[in-house]
Every structure is written in C-alpha cells, then in structure tokens.
Amino acid sequence: MEKIKVGIIGTGFIGPTHIEAIRRLGFVEVVGLAENSQAAAEQKAAALSIPKAYGSYQDMLQDPDIQVIHNCTPNHLHFTINKEIILAGKHVLSEKPLAMTSSESAELLALAKQHGVVHGVNFNYRQYAAVQQLASMVRTGDLGHIHLVHGSYLQDWLLYETDFNWRLSPEAGGNSRAVADIGSHWCDTVQYVTGKRITEVFADLATVIPVRKKSKGGAATFTSQREETEYEDVEIRTEDYASVLIKLEDGSRGVFTVSQVSAGRKNRLSFELDGSKHAAFWNQEEPEKLWFGHRDKPNEVLLADPALFLPDAKPFIHHPGGHNEGWPDALKNMMQNFYGFIRAGKDPQQDQASFATFADGHISMCITDAILRSHAEQRWVKVAEEEF
Ligand code: SOE
Predict the structure, then answer these.
(1) Is the shortest distance between the CB of 240 and ligand 1 below 6 Å?
(2) Cβ of 180 less than 6 Å from ligand 1
(3) Closest to 181 in 3D by CA, of 190, 196, 169
(4) Nearest-CA neighbor of 387 among 374, 375, 370, 372?
(5) pTM given for the model
(6) Contact at 8 Å (CB) between 19 and 50?
(7) How close is the Cα of 182 to the center of ligand 1, in Å?
(8) How confident is the model at residue 148 (pLDDT cuts 50, 70, 90)?
C-alpha cells in the first residue's frame, strides 16, 4: 500500500519532533519541508533526510504528491497558513494555538468542514496511556462524580531575565503567552479526561519579569543564552503566570496555575480529579505513575502496564510495565490516531476522532479569550458557547 505523503512547514523546536513521530508509524512518509528561505530549507532538509526542500510554503502547497501538511510555524502564522492549506485541499495538522483569536479559529473550523479535509491540532497530552486510563475511569464511573479538578502547568525555561524567545512577543506569539502556550494544553487535557467543557473563568495574570534582555544572537525554545554579552532590553507584554478559577458545564469547579518561571519545573503539567468515590492525580514529568486517593483504605500508585489498564487505554501503551513511555511516545500516538483516521477514509464531521480537531482548537481559543477578558475586567467571564 502506498504511503501517505506529508509536508512540514517550520522546523524550530516542534517540527522535527513531528517528523520523528511520523517516521515511527511506517505508513506515512515526510517528503517535503518548507522554511522561510531556500537555503534554510535545504540545510534543514539535508539534516533531516527529507527529499524536497521548499523556500516558500506556497510552493509546497502546489505539490500534488503531498496529501497532508503540518503547520509547525510560530503562532502568528497559524491562521493564514492553516487557511491556505485547507484551500489547497490538503489535510492539516496544526500546532496550537489554532489561530490568534477565536473569530479566526471559528473561520478555520468552518472552512475545514466546508472543504472536507481532516483537521487536527497537536494537543498531545491526551495521548498518554495514563491520561487515557483516567478518561476511561471517569467514563465508567470508577472515580464517581467528578466534583473538583485542580492542577498546574509549570515550566522554568523563561525564569531568567536573559531568557528570550519569539513566544514572548505579542506580534509572533499572540496576546497571551503562558495561558495560550501551556494553559491551553492543561484545559484541553482536563476537558478530555472529565468529558466536560470549561464554561466560565475568573483569571489573574502577571508578567513577573516586565523587562527582559534579548540576546542579539536570538534563542530557540527551551535554550538559554546566558553566556551572550550583547543584549537589548525588551518590554514584555505577555503573561509569565496565570491562576484561573474555572466552572465546568455541570457546575463542578476547579482551578489551575500556569507559570513559565517556576525553577525546577521543566514541563510539569499535572492535575487532580476529586471524585465522589476516589481521587486521582497525574503529572507529566512522571508519566507512568497514577496516584489514587481513597478515604477508607490506603492510597495507591498504579504504574502504567497494559495488563493493568482498561481496554480503552491499551492501544496507547506499547510496552510491558516498567518499559517507560513518555513525551515522544504520546506524540507518536497523536500521529498514529491522526493518520489512522486518514488512512481509514474517516470524516471528522461524522466519525469520532481520538485526537484534538479544529473544533477543540477553537474551544481552546474561546477559553483563552475569556481568560484574557476576565483578567482585564476582573470578573467571571463565560466562555463564548455560541461559537462552539
Ligand atoms: C513551550 O512552552 C512548549 O514547547 C509548548 O509550546 C508546547 O506546547 C509544550 O508541549 C511544551 O512547551
């Protein structure tokens, strides 16, 4: 059977991780890569062993061999490029956030439906076996009714004033940073696990480091440039931190904190579910562990193991217990589900997808917009339901 042919736009931190995950599938082939100059595209294509290099993504969109395009560019390019991919009739997998505003994401969702393409957003944290196990336990009622959900998503790669990256600038990253960049992951994961939408928010945001020193040499995501001596001062207008009270659709409550200035926390997305029977906790930095809290017996820790997981979670785990799986494996699951859907000829309008679609990307944009409004107006704000 012929392999599905794919093109990747953007090869910063995330593009190469998509390529690696795709290559692990076997039935999909990355045939092209686009960068913002021919020289950069050729250099990256050679380094990543990709046959076709495009100095302009528009040229790649014209390639009839390519059926699917991944948009791995900085945030401000997501809307325009996603739109052009759809108009070129290709299936699309976009990095989050789907666009810069919820009106843009609404437009993309409508367009993708109209053109009948498969659409996905890389909310990869739902793809962990342990997260699937929790989602399945919530569905089967094992934890009881979920009253409360609370947690955080903490990173430290922007802790120092000399830490700088395109994500900090509203022009490239958007008006929200910590909330859009990592809060969006927390909300998507928690909504997926509980099966409930976040319908109302009350937010407090802060820019902990209001002026940063930008290295004249530039810096990639998660890298530090502290040896650099040449800096310029840049005023920061996006948040390093947010705490958000949430209400879910059935009236249950929660709260989460996001921060990119929390020393020692590298990529710590965690959440706790308080159910009427039991509680459960998961932390992305120890992805194999699930903690269960009980009132009438000792608490438990379950180590991920296909033999101990529920049937719905089993397809997400690939090795026996103790043979740890983590971030790249969850990303592979994302690709497996997205490309399995395409290979089966499924339609996102009719068939249930186990990956996040543009509908989820749009919901996420609506939540981010509501959080920004809540902080600005210091009040509870409803997530714009009519736009779902
Ligand atoms: C940077 O904050 C970042 O790379 C996010 O953009 C990703 O979505 C997250 O998975 C890891 O951190």
Answers:
(1) no
(2) no
(3) 169
(4) 370
(5) 0.96
(6) yes
(7) 6
(8) very high
